[in-house]
Protein: DUF3794 domain-containing protein
Amino acid sequence: MELRKESVQMLRIKSKATSQVTFDVDYNVPDVKPDIGRMIQSKGEVSMDEVRLGEGKAFIKGNLLADMLYVGEEAGKVHSLTAKLSFEETLNLEGIVSGDKICLKWEIEDLSIHVIHSRKLNIKAIVTLRAVVDEMKGILIPVDVCEENVSVKKKKIHLMSLMVHKKDTLRIKDEMTISSNKPNIGNLLWHTISVRGLDLRPENHLLRARGELAVFALYTGDDEGNTLQWVEYALPFEREVECSGCQEEMIPNIETWVMHQSLEVKPDADGEERILVADVVLELDLKLYREEDHQLVQDVYSPLKECISQGKTETLEGLLVRNFSKCRVTDRIQVKETQGKILQLCSSQGTIKIDKTKIVENGIQAEGILLLKVLYVVGNDEMPLYSMEGMIPFTHVIEAQGIREGCSYYLQAELEQLSTMMADSNELEIRAVLGLNVLVQQPVEELIIDRIQEKPLDMAKIQSMAGITVYMVKPGESMWDIAKKFYTTKEEIIRMNELADDLVTPGQPLLLVKKV
Structure:
């Protein structure tokens, strides 16, 4: 017996692995750089040179770039340098082969730089590498039987089918001209760039990206005395990424991370170094789903022959909820007395780290910290710049009605807004808005019939049954179940009992007439 089937595309994890690369390196200050007097601030970035897949393994080559901003030992001038620490790592990914697609993400768990003496530093860091290899799995859902005189029992199911799965990049490049009251750029010392409020929405055959680049730059001017200058910019952007097969009504599950970022100086029309060019490249792991309704065939029977359904149970996926939740964080941080009183704030940077998530009643509880770095000026002309770090813990419940153990969820956290203000010369007030966005999928376990075996009727069994009987409906039975049991049809039961429809209740008497 032939079944008509519809395809549903699911994504399954083929293999995954996590590894940590530990650094503990003594680094000599290059000869061209002045002696180090005091460390102000540090930051890290990971760049990948090669990611190669083999049989059951992924071979990774990359670099940890440790940037340092410091005060020189002589004259108290501010300088910067970058240490490049190379690494190689092999990840064991069981079952993968060359040609599989890997999604590799990384995170700098910890970066600390200590001054041993004016020409030597100790750099400690932990870089966590997470690799996932996914594979598409098509499941054929039986939705009808291509044969007459057959009664089919169906159930409506609501599923998510994966329509687009690919990796792409989003490049955001913009220029800023420094204001006329600032001197030309002599030497760019330090910069930070972060993407805030990123909104990725599917449209027809494209993905629209909106957000804001938060840019901070510290430089020495080319004026007399090479004065220390800094600028901050908030640059809104809107970009399009071509995406074949993308439709506006699709449900996005898109992970992003920074592949590359840079800030460069270029001359303006008059040849003066007054333009900053920010360039950020984000890698996108795109998964776009479509919600679909299917009429799943659960059973088949015919009064003319015996039909035996054969198949296996599959776990499908349905959408439970999407929620774009916001967590507001407010706190005050004390400045160490040894660092002097704050004269002016230069910049503040924040990073969200989620430590733990768990399913609670009708929601997901997320616990984490907001890591802060604040650069500020004190009233000491010889040592003007200082930096402080702080942590603000938070706990937030993201509403997800109906969530239960067994549901899978994807949580993405981003810093949407960050405000740092001086409460007084010794205390900072921090206000932040964290975006905690979640997509929850619920498992849908169903018996998927892949074929139906046909056999002749057991006439001896049928002839032993009463031709006419009164049957009392049992709990959980449908009219379809009763018709199959007594070799009749729903239509015949409705006609004989003068019913309006096929709904029955436990204890209801039905007059049944065998049709065979």
In short: The helical segments are 459-463, 479-485, 490-496. The two ends are 21 Å apart (CA to CA).
